[in-house]
Amino acid sequence: MYEEIEAVRHELKQLPSVLTSIDAHQRVSTIRAAFAATAQRISDKTHEARNESERADMQTLYRGMVAAQRMVERMADLAYGDTPMH
Q: Domain total for the chain?
């Protein structure tokens, strides 16, 4: 379920460098896409929850992925003087 996040793990570990790199726009787009795809995958799996507790956990994971995507977007915006990168 987290394959996309695993694929950008190295980029996430070096996010400050990513944000200031020459190819930051492409790299940030890849990170954003990984969070979005993971959030969608979690959302798709939520209906498979066996009980309300499991469903609540899945919803929390979903919200966390969306929040992480927004944080990366905001950091990118700040790195480029509030010029939205998304």
A: 1
